[in-house]
Amino acid sequence: MTVVALVGVVSMLAVPGGVKQMQDHNARRFAGAFAQRIQGAKMRAMGRGAAVRVLINTGTGQLTISETVAQGEPSGTCLIPTNSCLRGNWDTGMRTVGSYGMDDNLTMSVSGFASPLDALTQKSVEICFTPTGRTFQRYDALAGDPMEPLKQSPIFHIKHVAGQQVRRVIVLPTGTTRFHF
Fold first, then answer.
1. How far apart are CA 95 and CA 32, in angstroms?
2. Which of 32, 62, 88, 93 counts the most CB atoms within 10 A of its CB?
3. 4-53: per-residue pLDDT in tens?
4. What is the pLDDT of residues 129-169, one digit of tens each?
5. 132: left (phi over 0), alpha (psi -120 to 50) or beta
6. What is the assigned CATH class of domain 2-180?
7. Contact 119/112 with Cβ under 8 angstroms?
8. Would you list the domain boundaries of the chain?
9. C-alpha distances out from residue 65 to 98, 101, 115, Å
10. Which residue has the higher pLDDT, 88 or 97?
11. What is the pTM of this model?
12. Band of the pLDDT at 82, cuts 50, 70, 90?
């Protein structure tokens, strides 16, 4: 009987630790997949010869990957891709490659701007890759705002709402990603 009581006490002590590890594992898994999808978008641009945009909504964690189409191209099944992040039509007729969401229990924020106050107001980040390997960015863009070369590395902070550990995904100006635990 004493052994059964001891096993029960030990298992009650272990359950909160196991739950916390599972929460941190979910955040780590999403951050790793997030980094791989950004890296995959760069490889897709280089492989297909078309500019590829990654739109990240930091409030919802939604990640949308799309290819640009030539301006003035009507919507349809035979869209002509363009290789420029600056001349593409991102608002209408773009070809969406994939859309990925974040679990409700995870949170995302972004930093790495010239001013820390800028990071608080950013709701979306757009990163665009060209076939030649150049990387462009635009933050909280209104329709028609131009993209600029990526000069500062945005850092995406991903964590579970109840967790303590923050996972960081850094997008470097070369378009590669770094994943920090």
1. 25
2. 88
3. 666 665 665 555 666 667 777 788 888 888 899 999 999 999 988 889 99
4. 999 989 998 877 655 677 889 888 888 888 887 777 888 88
5. alpha
6. alpha beta
7. yes
8. 2-180
9. 5, 12, 27
10. 97
11. 0.78
12. confident
Residues for the chain: how many in total? 181
Which tokens in the block code for residue 21? 């590890």
Single-letter amino acid, residue 142 = L
In order, the DSSP letters of the chain are: -HHHHHHHHHHHHHHHHHHHHHHHHHHHHHHHHHHHHHHHHHHHHHHHTS-EEEEEETTTTEEEEEE-B-TTPPSSSSPPB-S-SSS-B-SSS-EEEEEE---TTEEEEEE-SSSHHHHHH--EEEEEE-TTS-EEEEESPPTTPPPEE--S--EEEEEETT--PPEEEEE-TTS-EEEE-
The region that residue 150 occupies, defined by phi over 0 for left and psi between -120 and 50 for alpha, beta otherwise, is beta
Q: Are 112 and 102 in contact (CB under 8 A)?
A: no
Tokens 């009987």 identify what position?
1
Of 88, 70, 92, 91, nearest in space to 79 by CA: 70
**Is the Cβ–Cβ distance between 160 and 28 less than 8 Å?**
no
